[in-house]
Amino acid sequence: MTSEATAVPIVRADGRAPDQLRPISITRGWSNQAEGSALIEFGNTRSCAPPP
Strand 38-42 relative to strand 45-49: parallel, antiparallel, unpaired? Predict the structure, then answer.
């Protein structure tokens, strides 16, 4: 993908292309205190998902 005005390839600050997703990781059983918990990671963003 390029910018039409300058014809320079568009690259995000972390080096990904505009249509490229961050790496995704799901770790089941992340917490010993909550059965069915999961840790969900999108690049450097992390979210703890407790069971319903």
Answer: antiparallel
